[in-house]
Amino acid sequence: MKRALSLVALAMSMLAFGQVDKIYKHNGEIVEGYVKRVDEFTVEYTYQGEETINTLSKYAVNKIFYGKSTRIEDISEKIEITDDKDWRKVIILEDKKTCCGS
């Protein structure tokens, strides 16, 4: 009986740890925390165990994996410049709201 209760407690703790959201950035970095809001130009999140809200530009984010629902949301495509013809891919950000975070 004690063994069964221990297994149930272990399974529940594993589920609790598995509910963290993951933000996949274009530079390869993975940010683990909790996504609070996805706006028109930004993604707001908190790190696990913290309350401070951090902000990233959506242009720096490839996708978000939501831990609770296991849903994946594509945010933006990475812009890669390989030759002179790729200048059309460049997005000029004129408003400060569109380029906050890194």
Description:
- The chain has about 100 residues and is α+β, with helices and mostly antiparallel strands.
- It has a single domain (about 20-100), classed as SH3 type barrels, CATH 2.30.30.
- Helices cover about 15% and strands about 35% of the residues.
- Strands 4-3-2-1-5-6 form a six-stranded antiparallel β-sheet, with no helix packed on it.
- The mean pLDDT is about 85.
Which class do the helix and strand fractions yield?
Answer: alpha+beta
CATH topology: SH3 type barrels
How many β-strands, per DSSP?
A: 6
Task: Note the beta-strand portion.
Answer: 25-35%
Shape: elongated
* Top-tier CATH class: Mainly Beta
> How are the strands of the biggest sheet laid out side by side?
4-3-2-1-5-6
Number of domains: 1
Rg over alpha carbons:
18 Å
Which blocks of ≥5 consecutive residues have pLDDT under 50?
Answer: none
Rounded to the nearest angstrom, the distance between the terminal CA atoms is 51 Å
Order of helices and strands: HEEEEEE
Count of alpha/pi helices: 1
Main beta sheet, described? 6 strands, antiparallel
Query: Helicity level, as a percent range?
Result: 10-25%
Q: Average pLDDT across residues? A: 83
Query: If classified by CATH, what would the architecture be?
Result: Roll
Quick structural overview:
The chain has 102 residues and is an alpha+beta fold. The chain has 1 helix and 6 strands; from the N terminus they run αββββββ.
